[in-house]
Automatic annotation (TrEMBL):
Residues 180-197 have a biased composition (Polar residues). This is PH domain-containing protein. Keywords: Membrane, Transmembrane, Transmembrane helix. It comes from Paeniglutamicibacter cryotolerans. Residues 37-153 form the PH domain. Coiled coil: none annotated. The lineage of its organism: Bacteria, Bacillati, Actinomycetota, Actinomycetes, Micrococcales.
Length: 220
């Protein structure tokens, strides 16, 4: 009996040491990541939108899915719902602060089968790459229903598409109209009339050419 008790005691001690090491490592990670920017606040006037239910996997350093972000509870796996708006993507986590990814902070939308120790079926995870302050991060989310993945990925991916730029004369800030004789108020202006109209205010009109009929009549 004493032999079994000793084995159990050793096992319990090993488990406690293992848990303590994990806690120490997590605390060191929190200290190392203390300079990461706080989570952005979601706009207060977001309209009603469909929520895709599923699991928030975690947030890691971009392209390094073993380097979890510990601050702001971003490294903890929770149930969550995702809603997509024109302003960005809102991840509402159970028991943790929501994660709002503004559209102008979103850098990429992809799919994967594994992330930070979470492995699922092929392309079962939605991965959003975005900027948290000046740090590029990846956030993973798994929809509860796999058939919703395509729609969710398309909605999020649409935020990356640039807005259509206007074309034509108005795009360059130039007036989109053509000056015609009717719009100028004249229909049969002569070169002489044009010269008089274009002269400075108060200036004496130029004399007609000497070889014109009017000049010959005056010389007689």
């Amino acid at each position: 009996m004493g032999q079994y008790t000793q084995a159990i005691a050793i096992t319990v001690a090993a488990v406690l040491v293992f848990i303590a090491l994990i806690g120490l490592g997590w605390r060191n990670r929190l200290r190392r990541q203390s300079g990461i920017a706080p989570l952005p606040q979601a706009p207060a006037d977001l309209p009603p939108s469909r929520s895709f239910e599923g699991q928030y996997v975690c947030t890691t350093t971009a392209d390094d899915w073993l380097d979890r972000i510990a601050v702001h509870s971003l490294g903890l796996r929770t149930n969550a719902g995702v809603r997509v708006f024109a302003a960005g993507v809102l991840i509402e986590r159970d028991g943790a602060a929501p994660v709002f990814i503004a559209a102008d902070a979103l850098r990429g939308v992809g799919r994967s089968s594994g992330m930070a120790g979470k492995f699922v079926e092929k392309d079962g995870l939605l991965v959003l790459t975005w900027m948290l302050g000046d740090k590029a991060v990846d956030t993973g989310f798994r929809p509860r229903y796999h058939q919703e993945m395509k729609e969710l990925a398309e909605l999020a991916g649409a935020l990356l598409e640039p807005a259509a730029e206007p074309t034509g004369p108005d795009a360059a800030g130039e007036p989109d109209f053509t000056v015609t004789a009717e719009s100028a108020g004249t229909t049969d202006a002569t070169p002489q009339d044009t010269a008089i109209e274009n002269s400075a205010p108060g200036a004496t009109p130029a004399a007609p050419p000497t070889d014109s009929p009017a000049a010959e009549k005056e010389n007689q």
